[in-house]
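Notebook entry, structure prediction.
Reason for the run: the old model in the group folder had no record of what sequence produced it. Starting over properly, with the input documented here first.
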Amino acid sequence: MKLYNLIILFILIFHSCDGQKNNITYPKEKIVNTETFDISSYEKLKDEQLTKNMLNPWTVETKLATGEKQELFSSADGNEITYFKSITPQEPALLKTIKRFYSNGKIAVEYETYVGILNPYPNAKYTLVGETKYYDKGGVLEKIENNEKIFENKKVNLPKLFSLLEKEPILDNLSSEEQKKLKELFFEEKNIDEITPRLLIQFFQENLKKENPENQYTLNGFFLNKNDRNDRESLEISYTDPKWIIKKDFYPVGWVTVEVNAQTGVVSNKKYHFENRP
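New structure, fully documented this time:
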């Protein structure tokens, strides 16, 4: 999952400049960002992980003194190496900071986005929050892109989507066919009318505990519990104009999807999907 998340980050970062011209402003005075990527320390830590034969040795994860999670990683395009830094705050924060650095270690781009999984392509600009700042190879601020302007004529941007999902039940109801299939798969001892969304959510919670006893999710019955470190990162969010598509995964017992219209804020097409993955 972590490698998948990093691939998504690469896609997001390299498409983040796809903004409209009226969203961009240019500094009237010279502003220099002196932040650099510590390449030598990163390479040393990466080599140490390589000797341990880790699954994804190119990502170096550390916990900062502030309690934030820091992930360092890199990408090569020919002889050009690009470095990345992701800073994830502690719960209940839902946004993390992503920074991209040039091969010389100078900062190139910085912005904020969701702490969980994003499927941004081809609409990367919709998953960015606040401002995206672009720097030249000397660290001089070149331009600022206002991501909020994209939603001027829409009702639900990413922060508003979070607020909505905190109040949106994971499931509202189950069809008779779903109840019948759930009985066959998981609840043989139950009567059909006893198989309710609440029972299924309890079942989700129990299986999440079995899957990872040390890192348990705390489901509160809603799509998003931002006060739980794991639950806040469990959503997979994508945007296809005009709707947000949200997936909450309960592998290996299925997943739930819901759509939210960004123009109107209307929630629709909520569905439990039976597990079909290996």
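Summary: Residues 14-20 have pLDDT under 50 and may be disordered.
The old model has been moved to the deprecated folder.
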